[in-house]
Amino acid sequence: MTNLRIYYRLIIFVIALLAVAPDCRSQQGIVVGAGRVSEYSALLKGRRVALLSNHTGVVEGRHTLDIMLENGINVTTIFSPEHGFRGNADAGEKVSSSVDAATGIPIASMYDGKKRMPSAETMSQFDVIVTDLQDVGLRYYTYYITMLDLMNAAVAYGKDFIVFDRPNPNGMYVDGPVLDMKYKSGVGRLPIPVVHGMTLGELALMADGEGWLQGGRRLGNRLKVIKCAGYTHQSRYRLPVSPSPNLKTMQAVYLYPSTCCFEGTVVSLGRGTEHPFEMYGHPGMKGYTFSFTPKSMPGAKNPPLLGKKCYGRDLSGIDEEEIIAAGVNLEYVIDAYRRMGIGDKFFTSFFDLLMGNGDVRRMIKAGKSADEIKATWRDEVEAFKQRRRPYLLYTE
How many domains, in total, are found in the chain? Predict the structure, then answer.
């Protein structure tokens, strides 16, 4: 009887585990575009290929570049985005062009602080551009901007463009103000919300289809997307590698839509700690006992408030589903603004670029709540969701 009782308890445990962890099953069933070699090899064989990728371009621990070379694809050029091909440069740090030590293939940096259009000499080295980057689905995350730069180059030089698609870990919702294009910058290129809910492949199709490329020109049928298999927008896709040096955990990836706005304030969001984007604080923050001290470390060589003890809030223990349900949550920055009590000195000009308008800052200063501010962008979010619908490749 005792063994039977244990057996039944084991069955109940397994059923319960499956009920609360559908993401594990979904994760195992997802195949990223780069892993679907049979879908793209015929498109690339016999052609000179440029690959835009970095450390996130992996399939079960193997880099997409190696997989392509092993399958006889002639990769002649590598393009690298922010953080470099190996993904270890600081945010905003200029990355020089170089050569990949493992393959001898030249790397052309798209984040060297110079003109964002590759030279004619570089463009002459290939026939088709392939993009394989793990994005996190935010308007101010720069990987999609680098993709757009190369799409513009492909239009200008008559090259084909292929996106090896990857899941969007924040692809389950759309939220935040749509970019007012007078605030267009290096952290905002398209009239899309903060959280757009699209994969890079879908975003590429939309940018092309809506005429958002330079001069309204289009790639048309020269743009192709190698879709993910087994993915929907409600999949909880857990990233196999950190997409950039300071997004170290899934908790940080989920909090990023809400805590990145601290980049436009005097408050630290934890760069220079083991949990960036999962906390916020300042030496002058009132009412909190939690503290941290930013230090110099790889990926954060000179973080804000370096060496200063900051008091604030630890967000690392909040349930992931609670974070997702809240969407772009301005409660954190409003809390910090009120506790600091320094008025407009709290913000830098970068805050408006991140938010995509000047209204959010003005409403925070006027004492509006997070819910009141969110209500102001609700209609434009719904309009965007309708506008993007023709370009979606996966079930919402």
Answer: 2
Q: Where are the alpha helices (DSSP H) in 172-319?
A: 200-209, 250-259
Separation of alpha carbons 107 and 109, rounded Å: 6
**Whether residues 193 and 325 fall in one domain:** no
Q: For residues 101 and 56, state if they share a domain.
A: yes
Residue 2: pLDDT above 50?
Answer: no
197 and 109 co-located in one domain: yes
Question: How is residue 57 written in tokens?
Answer: 């371009």
Asked if 339 and 287 touch (Cβ cutoff 8 Å), the reply is yes
Q: Which residue range forms the structural domain that includes residue 279?
A: 250-365
d(Cα 126, Cα 131) in Å, to the nearest integer? 14
| Per-residue pLDDT tens over the stretch 322-360 | 999 999 999 999 999 999 999 999 999 999 999 999 999
Residue 379 lies in a domain: no
DSSP H helices in the chain: 2-20, 22-29, 37-44, 64-70, 120-123, 143-157, 200-209, 250-259, 320-326, 331-340, 350-355, 359-365, 370-376, 378-388
Indicate the pTM of the whole model.
Answer: 0.89
pLDDT (tens digit per residue) in 110-124: 876 566 789 999 999
Predicted pLDDT of residue 30: 96
> Is the residue at 6 inside a domain?
no
Task: Please say if the pLDDT value at position 85 is more than 60.
Answer: yes
Is residue 10 helix, strand or coil? helix
Based on the fold, state whether residues 43 and 171 are members of the same structural domain.
yes
